[in-house]
Amino acid sequence: MNSSAPTPSAAYRTTATGTPAGARLLAGWYDTGRPADLNEHLLRYGPPPVAMARGHRHSMPLLRAVEAAGLTGRGGAGFPTAAKLRAVAARRGRAVVVVNAMESEPPSRKDQFLLAVAPHLVLDGAVLAAEAVGADTVHICLPRGRPAQYQQLHTALGDRGRAHLDVVSLLLHALPHTYVSSESTSLVRWLNGGEARPLGNPPRSHERGVARLPTLVHNAETLAHLALVARYGPDWYRQTGTSDEPGTTLVTVSGAVAAPGVLEVALGTPLATLLDGAGGPTEPLRAVLLGGFAGVWLPAGHLRTPLTRHDLAELGAAPGAGALVALPRAACGLTETARVLAYLAAHSARQCGPCRLGLPAVAEDFAALAAGRPDPDLLSRLHRRTGLLPDRGACRHPDGAARLAASALRTFADDVDHHLTRGACPNAHRPPLLPVPPAEPPEAWR
Amino acid sequence: MTRARTLRIDRIACTGHGLCAELLPELVDLDEWGYPVLAQAAVPARLESHARRAVAACPVLALRTERPPR
Ligand code: SF4
Ligand code: SF4
Asked: Which portions of the sequence form the region Disordered (chain A) (predicted)?
């Protein structure tokens, strides 16, 4: 793994002031400085209030609480959690719940961190969601190649079993860790015995997913918030954040900051404050990458922007899964982007022509730009090819790559000029900053 | 009034034969690799029969038209 990736150990740090005001999911961690086992979890929170999740979907207290809280998904898309719950609860018969802890964005570590320090909050959320939608099975999807994480969750599930805490059965799975295997349709396809590649067509998972049953797929962090809403209610949940986008969220801050790691912040916190929470910039910044490899480069001038969907939408950005990378002024944003695009191209699931052929072409053009080896048509071809990526795949993988490429051309417009007319700048030869895995096709899809 | 049907392409099934662009050039263009680019998804009434023929001609059943849900 690239050494500039925010490692869990870097994130496993307490602040001098103890529990930061407003920490919720991480409150136990900040209090004790160690992962919460089942005993400690039960002392702090008590058992999951499953009675909240019983009753008809119109009157069920949990659904109404989640709706009133305004909880949204923390996996990237930001969809209202209550609407997803209702859609599955409305189907007839048994349902299935899937916990998405795949965390495919290389600069994100928040789900891994949350599962390490507060696994039972996530599991409580999954159990409550299962009760709410009428599921008796929960599938927990982890990325393959993290044996310690798998073992820790295995232990957590064993503890719950011995305590006879849950009626539903909780099953642990380790899936191929590719960029697109975290798509909810990839999880469903894999759990059904297939490859962890996205599915394009209806039926949608909430209609017919795992074992052809209505299937609810939620990000791990989302379920942990749900577990707290079930206990403390929507008014408590809304005490922090903004009125339109309440609550807290986990972010992973890395790059040119003194103390890279995972933070819990109120929605609406300015980006600059997130950087300060990670020890502050170590040198003057040129830009930040927000939202991971499917995200957007924002010039350093926008660092006062609050972390909300509403405020970021004006800049063509979104919180995504909450990954923020600080790019120093002395780094080359074009070179960094070219490396990411090469990786994203290699990780296309190669099912759709426009993605299979278009992504490598854009990545190649970008590499030529970054290296300062342009041909006369390079820039117009790059714009055209980038413009043809969105909305032309079965999943949103090409859309994310296009968003990143387009934002790089905007944010680093001066560098584009320089690279086109005078070749690559000396910054292009700095050691790479972003934690980009090798640009090679995934070893396995199954 | 009935609402316009919309064109949809199953991107996984589509093999880039390009027949659709030949039969429905008003709505379908091809990219440099021969894969369809939709000018717009809505099918105007005057093109409905052409759209139907393009749907029928797609050798892998990747092209279809849908009535949008109300
Ligand atoms: S768009 Fe790309 S990643 Fe998504 S399903 Fe198609 S080929 Fe796979
Ligand atoms: S005719 Fe069918 S397979 Fe050929 S390009 Fe059109 S949609 Fe794709």
From this structure: 423-446
> What is the Cα A107 distance to its own chain's centre?
9
Q: Are A392 and A357 in contact (CB under 8 A)?
A: no
- DSSP string for residues in A219-250: EHHHHHHHHHHHHHHHHHHTTSB-SSSBSEEE
For domain A248-328, the CATH class is alpha beta
Q: Where are the domains of chain A?
A: 15-237, 248-328, 333-429
Q: How many alpha carbons lie under 13 Å from residue A109 in its C-beta half-sphere?
A: 24
According to CATH, the superfamily of the domain at A15-237 is NADH-ubiquinone oxidoreductase 51kDa subunit (3.40.50.11540)
Instruction: Taking residues B44-48, report their average pLDDT.
Output: 95
- Predicted confidence band at A200 (pLDDT cuts at 50, 70, 90)? confident
| pLDDT tens-digit series, residues A119-169 | 999 999 999 999 999 999 999 999 999 999 999 999 999 999 999 999 999
| pTM, rounded to two decimals | 0.92
- Quickly name the fold that domain A333-429 has: de novo design (two linked rop proteins) (1.20.1440)
Does residue B1 surpass a pLDDT of 60? no
Among B7, B15, B38, B50, residue to substitute to test ligand 2 (most atoms within 8 Å of Cβ): B15
Q: β-strands B63-66, A248-255: how paired?
A: unpaired
* Closest ligand, as measured to the CA of A354: 1
Ligand 1 center to residue B14 CA distance, Å? 12
pLDDT at A20 over 90: no
Query: A248-328 with A333-429: one CATH topology?
Result: no
